[in-house]
Amino acid sequence: MIPDRAPRRGAAVAGERYSDTPVEYLIKQYPLQQGAPEIEYIEEFFLDFPRKKTAVEVHQRLRDRDHQILMAEAPLPDDPGTVVPVSFKVSHELRATESDPKLADLVAQLEDCVEFDGRRVLYQWIGGTRSDWRGQGHFRALTEEQETWALANGFDEIIVKTKNKFYEMRSTLAQLQFDVIRFVPHPVESAESKVFLSKRLGQHVIDAHRSRRSVVRG
To answer: Which one of 30, 141, 169, 198 is most buried, counting C-beta atoms within 10 A?
Structure first.
């Protein structure tokens, strides 16, 4: 997952202002059938990802579990009448018992630091912001909308996995108050070490939100 980078001079974090004008973020929440091909399309603009997810992969991962597909849109700088997707986030339920080998391995790595029994855990699977729109608060707005949805749907905690080398990502997650719960060293390359982060949900999380959002649900 590649989040917003540090704000550029003159840019604002979500909920702050550009030139004294309040920023309102446009967010769409997609159903799976429509959202899967949208994710395949938008990932083509993210050069950070070595391998892009296909619509089939997204559909197979999400079809039998609670999930959320969010996308932020913004007007093109040279054509304000044209709105394009600039940031996205895909998350899904993570269960104590998983049949998918990748998810089963993820649960095994978290079993002594995340409580699954009697609780609902949301896994932040993929997401990012297009380079020209980073630092403008879109990823924060998506995160706050994700947290609102997760709490309303009975989730207790959000989990994120990243790598040690993605320092900007880790910084953004720290600003969003995600805590490191596990560090798994790579035997050869420290940069490839895994970092697991968590955020426990509650009304206090919602009360701390700063972004103004307009949400359209498909």
So the answer is: 141
